[in-house]
Amino acid sequence: MITVNNGVFHLQNEENSYLFRIMDGYPEHLHFGGRVESGDAEALAPIPGCGWGGSTLYDERSNACCLDIFPLEWSGSGRGDYRESPVELSVEGEPVTTDFRFSGWEILKEPPASELPISRGQEILALRLLDREAGLRLTLCYGVLPTVFTRRAILENLSGKPVVVRKFMSACTELSGRFALHTFSGGWIAEMQHNVTPVSMARICLESTTGASSNRANPGFLLASPDATEAAGSVYGFNLLYSGSHYLSVQRSLQGITRVLQGISPANLEWALAPGESLETPEAVMSYSGGGFGGLSQRFHTYVNRNLISPRWQGRPRPVVYNSWEGCTFDFTEARLLSLGKTAARLGCELFVLDDGWFGTRSSDTSGLGDYNVNLKKLPHGLKGLGQKLEAMGLGFGLWFEPESVSPDSDLYRAHPDWVLRDGLGRTDLLGRHQLLLDLTNPAVRDYIVQSVGAILDSAPISYVKWDMNRHSCALGGRQHAYILGLYDILHRIFDSRPEILLESCSSGGNRFDCGMLYFSPQIWCSDDTDPAERLRIQTSLSYLYPPSTFGAHVSASPHAQTLRSTPLSTRGNVSFFGCLGYELDLHELLRVEQAEVQAQIAFYKAHRRTLQYGRFSRGETDGGGILWQAQTEEETVAGVFHGLQPAAPGYERLTVSGLDSQKRYRMESRPQLLRVGDFGSLLRHVLPVKLNPHGFAISAADSRYKMYDGAQALTASGGAFAQGIPLAPRFSGTAYDPQSRTQSDFGSNVYTIKEVSPDEKH
Ligand code: GLA
User: Fold this and answer.
1) Could you please report the per-residue DSSP string of 357-371?
2) What is the rounded distance in angstroms from the CA atom of residue 401 to the CA atom of residue 420?
3) What dotted CATH number matches 316-402+446-469+501-617?
4) How far apart are CA 370 and CA 238, in angstroms?
5) Which among 398, 341, 412 has a CA at the least distance from the CA of 370?
6) How large is the average pLDDT for residues 444-463?
7) What are phi and psi of 122, to 5 degrees?
8) In whole angstroms, what separates CA 122 from the centre of its chain?
9) From ligand 1's centre to the CA of 510, what distance in Å?
């Protein structure tokens, strides 16, 4: 809801308020946080007293007429506010100051049209500011959604001269309080490392300059009070609907106001605004919770699921996929794919994704990108033939593309060498993964991609697309924003008219995991790292900002290609459950008992899919050093307990489940997961009555067929007892195998379901 009373602007949603007013023509920020009333404006306003000596005054009558000491909704340079400005402009090569003053407001039922992704279903307040002398109009758009507020800015050149925009932020947000900044940085296969930096008077910047939102600096971040926990304390969350180079800065002023700027990275930005033209920023989203990190991430999850994801996919179950990449890479034939498809379908998969390698001369990553014509040597019946055969097995058909890049060794490059990005000197770009980036600012390039990808999509029964992007360009320079606008244009043109296609985006894993891509693709491949120990960390970090329904999470072969670590198959499944489950390995290399475990995993996932994809997700830990993930709906809770290295003789461990009714009774059951006989190695000699060679035929045969259950546990207790902590089955402690113990080696885990039982039900 948006109200404007006595010059006080008040945005309210389910739990938050955002208040500002106009002070001498400048928008003065009053409050962002828990709910307050419009009538609180005066009480919440900062009291500058007699002002501060040495200040630059916008009105000489009072030392308090000084923009430097007020929290502001926007600030130009040159009117006495020396803090970092959200805008920098130049005219005829000279930097100019700006002085935007209030000129009016309007409530809009629809956001102004945009080339950029905009959150869905918001009510908008458009605040108009004018710099009369410069001939510039600034519109600050504030959006209200149930669990977040949004902001963006639009600059119009009303003057007769061209203006060059060198910096133009989406939002300038001022907060009171002490904060720690939580950011998520990393690199390929090492995405989303959670860094915590205390906010001080030294400015902290987090910036991506690669042209992508990047794995180096996710655009989402949190500002939390230093003592905030998962369940208590003040936490602010911010994100940006943008997939290109972005910028964030945070700095506390002497007066104790923390200024937060977020928007497009100003590095290399040189956007010429001709008279009459305008420039809009990407949309920023922000939310607050007094209920700790858990409260904040829940608000972001609701936002992404209800106001960002395409309406067609909101709340819809995401299919269990089989993806050909890690199992086959480029080495496949139709017969091999179909045989894998048959096994995948038997084990319960619902969709088969043919990854890289199906087109042109693409039999390695050195050639073929850009030539989207089917390789008939590998697929003699084409994509249509393959898709129809997979459909006959009961599987949907998904296909990989990487349309933004081109291999120098491709027909496309030979025909259009001028279609790749070059810098201003015409210098050819450096290669990354043997490929170049197409110039999406060129309409002919965009038309080619729309036409070639569209033709393939219409040629076969394709219901899922994996849209990959595996390189950066050193030649993007000032065109990075135009490139991203080009990308969004292409995505609209291909997918708006094909809404039934589920789009998964990917960029060498999580190199473009951002709200801009989520607007188009309901799910994103989190990381090329499929080692569950790494995925635990990556998915935990992602969950602060994004819901599990957006995580592409696959089980792969062990030892893992990215870490050479060996992990139990059960844990690979248990981690992937908390996301969009898939399998990405050669299923035929699995032992029979492992195939049985995969089949059981998929059946379990399908039975609890709504909870795992859309339930209320929270993070925690056990008193035994385990990481705890919990997903909860009205009907049930699914909890996962995950361990790292196995200690000798681990002590007792309790599972604490939150959100249950303390008066009701609940049945907890562990997921029946399977162990391999071979996991015991030469220990078998101690537990079997006969002496067998652990590497001999009898053990291999038993290993392949014999089912050994792990950590079977079932009990009934009150919600109160679950809130206190329920003792879990003991972990392996060097004695013997017992199906009722958790026979976990390193990186062991178990998953539990907790469901209400009626008072008279006996267990
Ligand atoms: C990238 C992706 C992988 C896979 C390969 C194919 O690395 O992240 O999932 O699709 O490309 O070349």
Assistant:
1) -SBTT-SSTTS-TT-
2) 18
3) 3.20.20.70
4) 36
5) 412
6) 98
7) -95, 155
8) 21
9) 11
> pLDDT by residue (tens digit) across 711-743?
899 999 999 999 999 999 999 988 788 888 898
Fold of 627-756: Immunoglobulin-like (2.60.40)
Give me the helices (H) in 524-668, please: 532-543, 569-577, 592-607, 609-614
Contact predicate 516/243, CB 8 Å: yes
DSSP string computed for 634-702: SSEEEEEEE-SSPPSS----EE---S--TTSEEEEEE--EEE-GGGGGGGHHHHSSS---TTSHHHHHH
CATH 2.70.98.60 holds for 2-308: yes
The candidate with the shortest Cα–Cα distance to 509, out of 461, 553, 558, is: 553
Give residue limits of the domains in the chain. 2-308, 316-402+446-469+501-617, 627-756
* Pairing mode of beta strands 726-727, 351-354: unpaired
In sequence order, the 6+-apart residues with CB closer than 8 A to the CB of 688 are none
Strand partners, 149: 144, 286
Residue percentage of the chain with pLDDT more than 90: 87
Helix and strand tally (H, E) in the chain? 16, 41
pLDDT of residue 195: 98
Q: What angle do CA 451, 452, 457 make, to 5 degrees?
A: 95
Amino acid at 153: A
> Which token pair is 431?
């290669």
Tokens describing residue 253: 């002023």
Q: Look up residue 188 and give its two tokens.
A: 């390929």
What would the mean pLDDT of 421-435 be, rounded to a whole number? Answer: 89
**Residue of minimum CA distance from atom 6 in ligand 1:** 356
755 CB neighbour count, 10 Å cutoff: 12
pLDDT digits (tens, 9 = 90+) for 48-92: 888 888 889 998 888 889 999 999 999 988 899 999 999 999 999
* Three-state DSSP class for residue 584: strand
What number does the ligand 1 atom closest to the CA of 470 have?
Answer: 1
Q: Is 504 in the pocket of ligand 1 (CB under 6 A)?
A: no
- Torsion, CA 667, CA 668, CA 672, CA 677, rounded to 10: -130
Point out which residues pair with 8 in neighbouring strands. 5, 21
User: Measured between alpha carbons, how far is 453 from 483 in angstroms, rounded to an integer?
Assistant: 18
Phi and psi at residue 161, in whole multiples of 5°? Answer: -115, 150
Q: Are 680 and 735 in contact (CB under 8 A)?
A: no
- Counting from 1 in the atom list of ligand 1, the atom nearest the Cα of 508 is 8
Q: What's the mean pLDDT in 510-519?
A: 98
The finding on whether 470 has its CB within 6 A of some atom of ligand 1 is yes
Query: HSE on the CB side for 305, CA within 13 Å?
Result: 22
Q: CA angle 48-54-60, nearest 5°?
A: 70
The three-state secondary structure class of 305 is helix
- Please name every residue paired with 465 in a beta bridge, in sequence order, or none if there are none: 399, 503
Query: Hey, which of 329, 358, 506, 517 would you mutate to test ligand 1's pocket, going by the most ligand atoms within 8 Å of its Cβ?
Result: 506
How far away, in angstroms, is 508 Cα from ligand 1 center?
6
Per residue, the 3-state secondary structure of 385-417, as one string, reads: HHHHHHHHCCCEEEEEECCCEECCCCHHHHHCH
The CA distance from 593 to 601, in Å, is 12
Per-residue tokens: 216: 């180096």
- Residue that the structure tokens 């997918």 belong to: 495
Mean pLDDT computed over 664-673: 96
Q: Which of 393-402, 469-478, 689-698 has the lowest mean pLDDT?
A: 689-698
